[in-house]
Amino acid sequence: MTDLVTARRAKDDFFKHHPQSPLTPEQQAAFTGLRYYPPNPALDLTVTVEPLDGKAVPIQTTTGEVRQYRRFGRFTFEVEGQAAALTIYEADFGFFLPFVDAGAGTETYPAGRYLEPEYLGDNRFQVDFNQAYNPYCAFGPTWSCPITPAENRLKVAIRAGEMIPVGGWVESV
Residues with Cβ < 8 Å from 128, sequence gap 6 or more? Predict the structure, then answer.
């Protein structure tokens, strides 16, 4: 988990200082850091997906655009004794796992968080929820982010990864 802590510090530094930060210069000046759940090794999973039809599905974005993703596979897992299931999508840039958990709106960003699961071959993926991050639209209304499909809305809280951003630097979205 040392690598995770190092990566989080680097991300905060990028947000605060880099010219390609998703934050405006005014936000960067007031930025105090992202909030994260403590590292949770129990939510770093190796999963096997049940392959899906690979059918392209339209996913609307926060700005009204529509992007195409392919439904690659679905996996089941347990969180604190509760069963859950998510669909992994495939896009031109690789695999994509958007999800909304039960903490949305209070602990996590209401529109959900994202992951890029690592494909291990043979329909297996590394899904590390400690790497879950807020889409850029969580930091300001000018960003266009895919809206999490209904099939990836969980009834269980995923207490790993980034939490809902708070502070004077967060623009109203």
Answer: 43, 44, 45, 115
Vertex 136, ends 62 and 84: CA angle to 5°?
75
Burial class (CB in 10 A: 0-12, 13-18, 19+), 91: middle
Neighbour tally for 89: CB within 10 Å: 24
- For residues 97 and 173, give the distance between their C-alpha atoms in angstroms, rounded to a whole number: 22
Question: What local confidence, expressed as pLDDT, does residue 1 receive?
Answer: 64
pLDDT of residue 170: 86
Task: Kindly state the average pLDDT of the residues 18-22.
Answer: 95
Task: Classify the C-alpha dihedral 87-8-6-159 as positive or negative.
Answer: negative
Sequence-distant (6+) residues with CB within 8 A of 92 are none
Whether pTM > 0.85 for this model: the answer is: yes
Q: How far apart are CA 159 and CA 60, in angstroms?
A: 26
